[in-house]
Design goal:
Helix 10 packs antiparallel against helix 11. 55% of the residues lie in helices and 9% in strands. With 319 residues, it is an alpha/beta fold. The longest helix has 23 residues. The N and C termini lie far apart (56 Å). A five-stranded parallel beta sheet has the order 2-3-4-1-5, sandwiched between helices. Strands 6-7 form a two-stranded parallel ribbon.
Length: 319
């Protein structure tokens, strides 16, 4: 929302908390330039039994010493009809001197409120949807730049793995790292040294470490997995080994580009598979798959399935 003609209403919708906050901050900053923001900003939490008559009255109040008045309606995800319908009616004929920000984590496009705001203009809906998991590290790299620091993809991946995918939390961590580190770059070592892990390790982190033949990292991540998850991890790892076998076979025939279509997945889901497959000999992958059958029996018939799984993992990663 740059210095342009303002619409009377905007829907700021999506689970990306940082995007939502920055959208609100930009609008606030525009009003604060007048020096009269305190008289012209009204923030309402619509999840706390809102008095809709008061809200509509606020929307129709003229600004004081400024070009427009800003009304921010938070938590508009699940408004009762007695609240949403008056807002729909308001947006059919909104005040020309008020900007209303309707904030929601999610709001279906087929709702009357969504449609009423969307009709206000092509830029009335501000999409704050979360990036897909694989898109988060590149986004973190860009976020680091706003704090005056460079960051590698590996460091960004480590930060997401430790702090989670909440963009506001990630931005807070980047802000702390930027203030703490004197050099121009936030390194992987910096992330590992200064950022505490606050989210549970995801299975794919462990699978990726095994695929890359990074034994130290794989064993470290294995220790962080939930208790009694060996059978699930075994199943996931067997699937990954089969994928690497296919990747290696295609690569040997010069057909590596066909991996995603062969597996029936999206390209981003196997973007590192060829690199990982090249770190293994075909005999090693086939042997890993063969010993997986023995491990399955041990997992299901042994009291110490944790040890059985650990022995298999360390065995297949040994050159």
């Amino acid at each position: 929302m740059a210095e342009q003609q303002l619409l009377p209403g905007y829907l700021v919708v999506g689970a990306d908390e940082l995007k939502r906050v920055r959208s609100i901050e930009r609008m606030r900053a525009r009003l604060e330039k007048t020096g009269m923001a305190d008289f012209n900003i009204d923030v309402r939490d619509m999840a706390k039994d809102p008095q809709i008559d008061d809200v509509i009255a606020s929307l129709n109040t003229f600004p004081m010493g400024a070009d427009f008045r800003l009304v921010i309606l938070e938590n508009c995800d699940k408004l009762p009809k007695t609240v949403s319908e008056p807002l729909v009616e308001y947006f059919a004929n909104p005040s020309s001197t008020t900007v209303c920000l309707v904030i929601a984590t999610s709001l279906a496009k087929n709702t009357r409120l969504y449609k009423a705001i969307a009709k206000l203009g092509s830029k009335a809906v501000i999409d704050c949807g979360l990036k897909k998991a694989w898109e988060m590290p590149p986004q973190v790299v860009k976020m680091a730049q706003t704090h005056g620091k460079r960051m590698s993809i590996n460091a960004a991946e480590a930060l997401v793995a430790r702090a989670g995918e909440n963009t506001r939390m990630l931005d807070n961590e980047l802000k702390k790292l930027a203030a703490m580190i004197e050099g121009p770059e936030i390194s992987l070592a910096d992330v590992e040294r200064h950022v505490a892990r606050t989210v549970q390790v995801k299975p794919w982190e462990f699978l990726n470490a095994v695929s890359a033949r990074d034994a130290n990292k794989a064993l470290e991540l294995l220790k962080m997995q939930p208790e009694k998850s060996e059978v699930r991890l075994w199943s996931l790892l067997v699937t990954r080994i089969r994928e690497l076998i296919i990747a290696k076979a295609l690569d040997a025939r010069g057909q590596g580009s066909q991996l995603a279509s062969t597996l029936g997945v999206q390209g981003w889901q196997v973007k590192n598979h060829l690199t990982w497959a090249r770190r293994w000999r075909m005999e090693e992958l086939l042997d890993a798959l063969s010993t997986a059958a023995e491990t399955e029996l041990a997992l299901k018939g042994s009291r110490d399935s944790e040890l059985a799984f650990l022995m298999w993992v360390t065995g297949i990663m040994r050159p």
